[in-house]
Amino acid sequence: MDRPAPRAVLGSVFGAFAILVVVARTETDRISLAGVATTERSQVFVRGSGSDGCVTSLVVPGTGPTVDVPNFLPAADDCLSEVAAFSAGHVMRMVSAPAWTDGADVVPIDMHTQSVGVRLNVWLASKVPTESQVRFVRSEIVLASALFKRNRVGISFQPVDSGVTKPGDARFETIGDGCAHAASLRAAGSPLYQKLRLNVYFVTALRLAPTDPPNVWRGYNCYQAGAPNIIYISLTFGAPTTLAHEIGHALSLTAANGHTGTGAVTLIPGFTNRNLMWTGLNTDATAAQDRFSLGQAYRMNVNNRSWVNAGGARAGPTTLCQANHMDARPCPLLALEWASP
After folding, report:
1. Hey, how many other C-beta atoms are within 10 angstroms of the C-beta on 51?
2. 214 has pLDDT over 80
3. Higher-confidence position of 325 and 337
């Protein structure tokens, strides 16, 4: 889009006097997304110093490799300044402290890299492994990647290693049926557990403690046991979106920033039960979940507690996101949503 210079327009003449009317230019800045096709939809999150003070949460949608935003000014001491770009199928990119001026600026962002590929170590531990269980495992992985892509998170999942085990195999006993076995798995090492991968165990049913009866949990992430890269999925009660939810926990959506709601109760204002981190729903409602917010996508990429950073899968700037989901710095509000196209 051309950015015209200020124009001087000669007005009417009264006698010997000419009236000069000055039409002021409205400056805009531009985010240039190299590698984004002309038909691709993207969104940018921008904050910095504006003409009326700090701009804290601007989300702008765009189609193609350029997104125009309002004019930002040189950074002020009390204003956070950054641009984060999101586009389906591309890695999320962030530019900290862009060099804004009071003129028309262009911030280039290289989006050529495809999504961050997270390697999975997947095990099916079943008393009687069946082809339908194998299909369920595969469908969970495929859907998790599709949901993360649809929500512009920029992370995909690759089942690099997998295995099947059943009773009578020592590996079946080591996997167990819940996070009480996390320490044993880590001690066992490869191939049952791999430190630099997300380890996903599909089991018949889950127990939170060895003495508990099997329960109706769909899945469980072992971050509370110090092992966010260990995930259990129930073959009996799991829903199609269970793996996507548990990976969200691995990528730092935990504690106060974890579950957005439970059953009919909203835990974090701004979310509905279509959000993938809402829990306690029936099978049909769980299967219909398909959304991550921009605030969640930002944390899964940038929070240094996210496994893609702690496990070395992602290269890029990080920060320690705040525990209070109602705060907007250093990370944006958890419930900050995508802009309507």
Report:
1. 11
2. no
3. 337
Question: Running DSSP on this structure, what letter comes out for residue 15?
Answer: T
- CA angle 52/54/74 to nearest 5° reads 90
Cis peptide before 4 (omega within 30 of 0): no
What residue type is 218 in one-letter code?
Answer: R
* Strand-pair category, 198-203 with 116-125: parallel
Q: What is the pTM of this model?
A: 0.89
Q: Where are the beta strands (DSSP E) in the chain?
A: 7-14, 17-23, 28-34, 41-50, 53-63, 66-70, 82-87, 93-96, 106-110, 116-125, 155-165, 198-203, 219-222, 227-234, 261-262, 265-266, 278-279
Give alpha helix (H) positions in 166-231: 170-175, 182-188
C-alpha to C-alpha distance for 274 and 285, rounded to whole angstroms: 8
> What is the distance between the alpha carbons of residues 279 and 251, in angstroms, rounded to a whole number?
17
Contact 290, 299 (CB under 8 A): no
Nearest to 222 by CA among 176, 261, 158: 176
What is the largest distance, in Å, between two alpha-carbon atoms of the chain? 106
Distance CA 285, CA 205 (A): 20
Q: Give 180-205 pLDDT, tens digit per residue.
A: 999 999 999 999 999 999 999 999 98
